Input
Amino acid sequence: MKSYNIAIFGCGIVGSGVARILLEMNKELSQRARHTIQLKRIVELRPKTASGKNNIPLDLFCGGGKDLTAEEAGKYIDEIIHSDDIDLIVETIGGSNDFIYDTAVRICDAGKHLVTANKALLALRGKGIFEAARKNKVSIGFEAAVCAAIPVIKTIKESFTGDSIISVSGILNGTSNYILSMMQNEKLEFKEALKLAQEGGYAEADPTLDINGYDASHKLILLAKLAFGIDITLEQLSPIGVENIKREDIDFAEEINCKIKLVCYAKRENGKIYAAVKPMMVKNDNFLSSVNGATNAVRLINKYSGRHILVGSGAGSLETASSIVADIVFIARYAEKMKYHIEQTNYDFIDAKHFVFPYLIVFKTVDIPGITGLVTTSIGNQHINIDTVSHNRHIKEYAVFSIATTPCTLKQIDDAIAEIKKNRPDVLLGEPKVMPILY
Amino acid sequence: MKSYNIAIFGCGIVGSGVARILLEMNKELSQRARHTIQLKRIVELRPKTASGKNNIPLDLFCGGGKDLTAEEAGKYIDEIIHSDDIDLIVETIGGSNDFIYDTAVRICDAGKHLVTANKALLALRGKGIFEAARKNKVSIGFEAAVCAAIPVIKTIKESFTGDSIISVSGILNGTSNYILSMMQNEKLEFKEALKLAQEGGYAEADPTLDINGYDASHKLILLAKLAFGIDITLEQLSPIGVENIKREDIDFAEEINCKIKLVCYAKRENGKIYAAVKPMMVKNDNFLSSVNGATNAVRLINKYSGRHILVGSGAGSLETASSIVADIVFIARYAEKMKYHIEQTNYDFIDAKHFVFPYLIVFKTVDIPGITGLVTTSIGNQHINIDTVSHNRHIKEYAVFSIATTPCTLKQIDDAIAEIKKNRPDVLLGEPKVMPILY
Output
């Protein structure tokens, strides 16, 4: 068998998992790839940590196992990119800065295949990298970039090619989902749940990208590109995370048989793409409501084959690594045939304001008589039908209640809220929280 | 683009769906396959039914649209198999008789790729067909043979290649699951639920293969072959279907927080493969318990990436057809690279008797004092720990109760039952029903 030589750039949590699997499963992987898979070189600033944790021989590391300066690492990266002896490079450095972007483009320009789990890089700056791959006829494997080993990328690219995807939705961020599950099941406040998530290893010390919805958005951007051929920007999505969810929101959700989930949602309708990342009220009948903890789930609805759900662990060292290794096998098998055709479309992106959904609106108001009449009248004036009005919580100086609507647009709701503010500027305490209800 | 020519043998419910998608999505399919996909010829005994239902031009049918005798159809099949103008043949005739087997082998021998949804054929007689494909360097696409468009075959063959599969389980028969769901949710007896399933199109007029577990077994045999490289026979599996499930079994399941599901289960452990198809008590915490109606679900547990679940519709004309079309696209893209390597292993097949599981045993006995002591003593004599003893139902001339055990083997339970019979041949009314409890 021909040998197929791999280098790894960045041997941290994920990269060292890749090295471990490439070494542990070498025989099976080589049979599956129909090439002798060889892990040739690793570039890592601190080899000893990686080596110790996953039992990786130090002589695989450039520099023989000693710590590298950034400059030394850069030189080794250059050397490998231009080496004739490497077929495929795994990028597991992470981040989306210029250095990483340039490295990815240079890998492609040098005629080497690239496998990466870097969702931020591909979602925010993928265009130039995919273009470099196309131009140089190399493949980019990025299954691991969306929900680790859940096989959603290959499912869209290879399994649903006999169909037409109508919508993609899902729970794509394990940290947020863990926090929401803890708030729901253990009756915790957001801060307590976040603390538990950090202690349990489900949230990083700086959890910003997870709880503000950006990480989930990166994944949705990649899925929407594959499913619909559209490039959505983070600005267009303007994601809302879970950091402002309160216990009372969870209680209101329970009252209408829902769980609050951070839902990623993209749908094709009449030549337009609707997409959003925000907390939604997911009806208990909808499978996504039962996805708890750090688990991820992706739901696809197809024209011919209907509804599909893929569930699994969306993060973790070996989970992500196994997915990277599968991409290596796939590229080694099929490389010259791969050159993914990403369908280019002219779909318009539709702002979340124009989504037609039923919504739940949570109002915090001064606690005086007449408020319910005022609020429901303004909602009715915008031709929004009200489904249910919750029991009103009277909490010392204020009251909290929620209204579930039948399907309408966010614009109608915004107009209703504007009317309430105009008629009685003294009544609303803070901006009402508006969340779609997902059946 | 080079053209890629397709013929369809058998244009019934599934075949006509394939023809429809090939025609409706022709432009997208050709882009995705990077070949101009052309549906060239269809062989079907009754073209008008197929044509009318899915709007397929009659001139695509051999014979120009007139009904064919079996002999005429056979001649057209010969002609197409030996035609230079056809690249790939879709077999949607069904069945596993000699004619179908020979046709499949002849397609491969003629150097043509084969795509089929025929699970019985591949599960019972696949060896010769896969061998013919290997010898002639053609591909066999059979994603549609296991749970229609649920992408489980490609997930195992292409997505989990960077991992090692430990177990495959699932609900692989929609008819059985629909019946069990109706018994559970609507409090029906088996016969009433079966009737409803037939009226709703979820069961065929002759539902034998669905309710006796054979259809599910065919699918498990194919999954076990791909996941573990082992050829399991139907005799080895000796499946048990759902036809003997009674309302009282469902009630006992509820008492221990379970749903009864027809579970297909295969597991690798210490170089041995354990496999079974039988009704199991699935704990409400296990996701499979919440899979209702005609939905199918497959659960895979991997060494590195943990637990995965794929859910979707496991049957239906267009669902199955879209999966066949995806295989066509895949083969057109990658054909000469495909030649699947199915790993050959030396795993021993272990009879269900030696599974270690917790079990629920349902006893029907004469209704006299002392029975519980007799039964529980014999169970204890086999070193089986008892977890719970159900409330005893006193029904006119007999009593029914159930015992949940902690993990033990079926052999231990058989021995306990034998002891009860030996000590008191007059007590048991019929064979106790023994079902594994799945956590």
User: Anything to note?
Assistant: Chain A has three domains: 3-148+318-338, 154-313, 355-438. Chain A touches chain B through 54 residues (CB under 8 Å). The longest helix of chain A spans residues 317-338.
